[in-house]
From TrEMBL:
It is found in: Membrane. Residues 4-190 form the Amino acid transporter transmembrane domain. Its main location: membrane. The keyword Membrane applies. The chain crosses the membrane at residues 20-40, 60-84, 105-126, 132-155, 167-191. Pfam families: Aa_trans. GO terms for cellular component: membrane. The lineage of its organism: Eukaryota, Viridiplantae, Streptophyta, Embryophyta, Tracheophyta. This is Amino acid transporter transmembrane domain-containing protein. One of its GO terms (biological process) is amino acid transport. InterPro entries: AA_transpt_TM (IPR013057).
């Protein structure tokens, strides 16, 4: 979004972010609540789409199953592009820094195809990574829940013992504790169930 001193983009961008997250919540929470209400603890590890095929493949038309799968594919493709944007930006910035000229459109497209191919290769070569998702998520959780709070305190330097200082420290410590609990819980689960390592054999 274009920005200038007279018309800064941070205000409309912040409004857009809030509206986008409300829309995301309105889409995801009903699916999560309805899925748990319908299937409870019988939900398969791969999620609600697998449950739809497992429990309703005989009484739901193939058209409905196909549309549900298509919507999941569209969701994955679009969110992949959003979450991979920092990697694309780093690749383009490296090219601009090295060549001292703008990155052409065909090379930007090539970066995206290359990164997607590398991700696909990793997914096929290491199909057991999904079993480590909880552990990896627990390890990386402080980046989202804890570090921003500690960084805010370090940058803004609010008065020690003030309300904002206490809130940020409490949220940061809570994020670290939650991360620790998730890591321990996932390690416990891996030890109890075991990890089946199989390369280039997706199931």
């Amino acid at each position: 979004m274009p920005s200038s001193l007279k018309h800064p983009s941070d205000v409309p961008m912040w409004k857009g972010v809030k509206v986008a997250y409300v829309i995301v919540a309105l889409c995801l929470y009903p699916v999560a609540i309805g899925g748990f209400w319908a299937y409870g603890n019988q939900i398969p590890p791969n999620g609600i789409l697998t449950a739809l095929y497992k429990f309703h493949s005989h009484d739901v038309s193939r058209l409905v199953l196909g549309i549900a799968t298509l919507l999941v594919i569209i969701n994955c493709l679009t969110t992949y592009q959003i979450y991979a944007m920092p990697v694309y930006d780093n690749m383009e910035a490296g090219y601009v820094h090295k060549k001292d000229r703008p990155c052409p459109w065909w090379l930007r497209s090539g970066f995206r195809v290359f990164f997607g191919a590398v991700n696909f290769l990793i997914a096929v070569a290491l199909p057991f990574l999904s079993e480590l998702a909880g552990l990896l998520g627990g390890i990386s959780l402080p980046v989202t829940l804890a570090y921003p709070c500690f960084m805010w305190v370090a940058i803004k330097k609010p008065g020690k013992g003030s309300a904002m200082w206490n809130i940020n420290w409490a949220l940061g410590v809570f994020g670290m504790v939650l991360s620790f609990v998730l890591v321990v819980g996932n390690l416990w689960g891996l030890v109890a169930k075991g990890l089946q390592v199989h390369f280039f054999k997706p199931q």
